[in-house]
Design a protein that fits this description.
Blueprint lengths: L5 E7 L2 H6 L5 E8 L2 E8 L9 H24 L4 H22 L12 E7 L2 E7 L3 E6 L2 E6 L9 E2 L12 E6 L3 E7 L1 H7 E2 L4 E2 L2 H7 L5 H15 L10 E7 L26 H22 L23 E3 L15 E2 L8 H5 L13 H22 L1
Antiparallel strand pairs: 1-13, 2-3, 3-4, 4-5, 5-9, 6-7, 6-10, 8-14, 10-13, 11-12, 14-15
């Protein structure tokens, strides 16, 4: 019988908060129950708007750890991913509701945080991620990203689990442990030190951190905390809080550290290749398809509302922004507080070029009907949960 995973987690206050006399806003936890092993980390938003973010971060990791230990199979074998994502977000929001009463808060925004988790049951893996930070997979071949930081055009923008439409941004992964040696989760305070977004390279040090778990939870957490304090938090006077979670699989093959790459060729991104450009390209094709479908049903062609956002709408949703005293371009400087709130996303009908809601017997495209049905189901589930 395979050994259970070794679970390790540490959350340490950064020099930024030490110097200001403010508490650590990160949170992390591990939990094993019902044959399920879970690791979670969260980064509470900084700034005056997010007054109780540290409580939100703690609530989020505890909620998800318990939920997945009790209902791993339900989430893993549910094929409707939108339902799973919506239910995870609803569970976190519902758990946070008690904090609103306890601390007399005026909304979930005060509790804003990112969230990352990995749960393993046997050979099955569930992983989720919203916001910055990252999850890495360590295998015998080396280390690679399982999820990437969700940032905008600059490193100071991200998403939070407290957004009303957080389920749209939550990355949800179902996979297996095949060839996996460990999973390493980290908040942005650590991610910025070990990940190069221009090359998509995760530095070999992540695999070495994972290997600490081979010494057992207690010793691993002691050595991991010492390493993070020295090389991450100790890298500057304005360093952020730092959290690391490790899910280590004993009796699996570790990578050959001597063969791991510490550099990689820069990835050349085509900045003209955007979703908006794809939408505009497909406008005439969508109109042509609507004419054909309408003709088959003996109806007049329906007018497309357009496949792209209107001129006054942003090409991408605006994310929460973090103020920076200095750009986080070196190992001894990291991001400042998260401020601002999420802007409206573009109208769904305009983004997809969908037909209008039916009236007078006009045909509704099948995909539109399924989309509306899915949205109704998600709303119904959220309503039912709110009554429990």
């Amino acid at each position: 019988m395979a050994e259970l995973p070794v679970l390790v987690n540490v959350s340490l206050i950064g020099n930024k908060h030490i110097n200001r006399g403010t508490p650590c806003e990160d949170a992390s936890c591990t939990l094993s129950r019902n044959g399920v092993s879970v690791v979670c980390v969260a980064d509470g938003a900084g700034g005056s708007k997010y007054t109780h973010a540290r409580f939100g971060a703690r609530c989020a990791v505890d909620c998800i750890a318990n939920l997945l230990c009790d209902h791993f199979d339900a989430f893993y074998f549910e094929n409707r991913e939108s339902i799973s994502r919506s239910l995870l977000v609803t569970a976190v929001h519902s758990s946070m509701a008690d904090l609103l009463v306890e601390h007399e808060l005026d909304g979930l925004e005060r509790l804003s945080c990112t969230l990352l988790f990995v749960a393993v049951k046997g050979d099955l893996v569930l992983a989720g991620h919203i916001g910055d930070g990252m999850i890495c997979r360590v295998s015998s071949h080396g280390v690679s990203p399982l999820t990437l930081p969700a940032n905008g055009e600059n490193a100071s923008s991200t998403y939070f689990i407290t957004f009303p439409n957080a389920h749209e941004y939550l990355k949800f992964i179902r996979t297996t442990t095949d060839e996996t040696h460990a999973f390493v989760l980290m908040t942005d305070g650590v991610e910025e030190m070990v990940y190069d977004s221009s090359t998509q390279l995760v530095r070999p040090v992540v695999a070495r951190l994972a290997e600490l778990a081979s010494k057992g939870k207690e010793q691993a957490e002691e050595e991991l905390a010492s390493t993070i304090k020295e090389f991450v938090i100790g890298a500057g006077q304005n360093t952020d809080d730092a959290s690391v979670g490790i899910l280590y699989l004993p009796q699996t093959e570790a990578p050959d550290f001597g063969k791991m790459k510490d550099s990689k060729e820069k990835f050349e991104r085509n900045h003209d290749d955007t979703i908006r450009a794809v939408q505009m390209e497909w406008v005439p094709k969508v109109k042509h398809a609507q004419e054909i479908l309408s003709g088959l049903n003996g109806q007049k062609p329906q007018q497309s509302t357009g496949a792209a956002p209107s001129e006054d709408e942003p090409e991408e949703p605006v994310k929460n922004v973090k103020e920076e005293t200095k750009p986080a371009t070196s190992g001894d400087e990291v991001k400042e507080d998260k401020v601002d709130s999420e802007a409206k996303t573009a109208d769904k009908g305009e983004e997809t070029g969908s037909a209008a809601v039916p009236s007078g017997g006009k045909m509704v495209p099948l995909w539109a009907f399924l989309l509306m049905s899915g949205a109704f189901v998600c709303m119904a589930i959220a309503w039912i949960i709110s009554l429990i």
